[in-house]
Amino acid sequence: MSVRCFNTMNITNITRLGLIAFVSLLAGCATSNLPKGARLVGGGLSVEYTAPRDGTAILVERTSGRIVATESLGEGDSFDFNPDVENYDEVLFRMFGDIHAASDGSTMVVIPTNALFQLYFVPEKTRKE
Description:
By secondary structure, the protein is an alpha+beta fold. 24% of the residues lie in helices and 32% in strands. It starts with 7 loop residues before the first helix and ends in a 6-residue tail after the last strand.
């Protein structure tokens, strides 16, 4: 009687390849609604970016894949996102739907801990003359 032993190295490699393929697929799906040429240029709960040339800034909440804001920028213009300072309350409320009332009577949108904001920049195509 012969006993077959599976090489654990092969099983580990197959598992790793499967995980890499799965993560790649998810990453592709999450950014599939972005225009061709979009480049990830920043992220976090507070984002500041200065455009190196004319183009469009697109702020995406990565977990849901929803676009939070878009803004056309000229060379040297800045895009700033800070949910505590800027006027993004209405958009964030529509996305997350939870408001916290402070003791001073003001309200603020509660952003889930798994929310991840990412800023993409799409440079304007240069025209060949």
